[in-house]
């Protein structure tokens, strides 16, 4: 089994996880999609993958899990090994007391397998559904995160800004992991990287077809670990774990099949369906730039999609890891109209043939 995200030997070996939106599948109900995903998680739980990351979205077919905590509570009962990470909880959309209590429940239900992704939210259209604007979500995130972290560490919640004469509120369901579960922050914004390195978050930088070029990933990885080391020497890594080197990784859509030809034939129609789900809100609001069609062949050439035989995909992963200087790869195996058995086979082939083939790849991230 791969080392857990944040493991002290992260700079020597690459870790692998699953990333998921649980987007709509043509002709299937939400309940049927949930069952398919739980079956996929049971397969991934057999080994090879450290963490299952689940996104939070609202009002879009891209995200059939608007409450990641609810789905992950079900996943906690279906699995025993793989760690579970909402990636992210969109912090500004929550009451912080309710959020820290739900985090405590998830960590207890999973037997201490929870990892916590946090963020401001990437969609202004989704923020607007909650009466918020991007500046407002940024302010709220910065105001709430210190109180959330303090509550996880101390077992008592103090509402930011004061609340009359109310004192700290004891959490009767604290987190199981101490001082707190590992924290993740996904982003496609290079301007966020210095801060995230200083704070010690685990990071997923770039998401498939919205990922920056490899040279930018490498540049930001070096900057991230430079800032992390400097903050560590000063003893100022607030959101990391003591003595732990964080993960700095990327996310890719993946199809593995016995041959390159079969993998590409499966990829193209399913990715078109997924792209429609992904761009739904942008198209709805007339954002032509973000919703424009993508060139699958170009994405493959740029290493922003992984598809092919196990040998081909192993080469794609090796290139991404070594050239990007990352120590984590989050793979999305189920999306769009990919059949559940196709996703299951991809997970099996990736675990059994791809991961062993790339284990010897030198990872310089964090070194």
UniProtKB/TrEMBL annotation:
The Luciferase-like domain covers: 16-324
| InterPro entries according to UniProt | Bact_Lucif_Oxidored (IPR050766), Luciferase-like_dom (IPR011251), Luciferase-like_sf (IPR036661)
Single GO MF descriptor: monooxygenase activity
Keyword list (alphabetical) reads: Monooxygenase, Oxidoreductase
Q: What would be one Gene Ontology cellular-component term for the protein?
A: cytosol
- SUPFAM superfamilies documented for this protein: Bacterial luciferase-like (SSF51679)
Entry annotated with the keyword Oxidoreductase:
yes
User: Which Pfam families does UniProt cross-reference here?
Assistant: Bac_luciferase (PF00296)
Top-rank taxon of the source lineage equals Bacteria
- Record-given protein name: Flavin-dependent oxidoreductase, luciferase family (Includes alkanesulfonate monooxygenase SsuD and methylene tetrahydromethanopterin reductase)
């Amino acid at each position: 089994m791969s080392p857990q995200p944040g493991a002290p030997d992260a700079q020597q070996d690459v870790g692998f996880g699953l990333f998921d939106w649980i987007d709509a599948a043509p002709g299937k109900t939400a309940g049927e999609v949930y069952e398919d995903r739980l079956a996929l998680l049971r397969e991934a739980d057999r080994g090879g993958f450290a963490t299952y990351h689940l996104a939070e979205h609202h009002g879009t077919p891209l995200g059939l899990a608007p409450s990641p905590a609810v789905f992950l509570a079900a996943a906690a009962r279906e699995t025993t090994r793989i760690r579970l990470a909402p990636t992210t909880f969109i912090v500004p959309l929550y009451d912080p007391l309710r959020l820290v209590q739900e985090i405590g429940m998830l960590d207890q239900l999973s037997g201490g397998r929870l990892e916590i992704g946090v963020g401001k939210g990437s969609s202004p259209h989704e923020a607007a559904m909650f009466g918020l604007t991007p500046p407002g979500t940024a302010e709220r995130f910065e105001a709430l995160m210190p109180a959330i972290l303090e509550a996880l560490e101390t077992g008592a919640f103090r509402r930011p800004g004061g609340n009359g004469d109310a004192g700290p509120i004891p959490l009767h369901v604290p987190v199981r992991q101490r001082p707190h579960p590992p924290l993740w922050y996904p982003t496609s914004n290079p301007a966020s990287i210095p801060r995230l390195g200083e704070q010690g978050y685990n990071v997923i930088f770039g998401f498939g077809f919205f990922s920056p070029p490899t040279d930018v990933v490498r540049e930001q990885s070096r900057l991230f670990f430079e800032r992390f080391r400097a903050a560590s020497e000063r003893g100022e890594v607030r959101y990391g774990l003591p003595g732990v080197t964080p993960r700095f990784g990327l996310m890719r859509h993946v199809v593995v099949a016995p041959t390159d030809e079969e993998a590409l034939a499966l990829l193209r129609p399913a990715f078109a369906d997924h792209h429609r789900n992904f761009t739904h809100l942008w198209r709805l609001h007339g954002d032509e730039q973000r919703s424009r069609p993508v060139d699958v062949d170009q994405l493959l050439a740029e290493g922003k999609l992984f598809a092919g035989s196990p040998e081909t995909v192993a080469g794609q992963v090796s290139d991404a890891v070594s050239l990007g200087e990352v120590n984590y790869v989050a793979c999305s195996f189920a999306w769009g109209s990919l059949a559940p058995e196709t996703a299951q086979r991809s997970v099996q082939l990736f675990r059994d043939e791809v991961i062993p083939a790339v284990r010897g790849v030198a990872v310089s991230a964090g070194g």
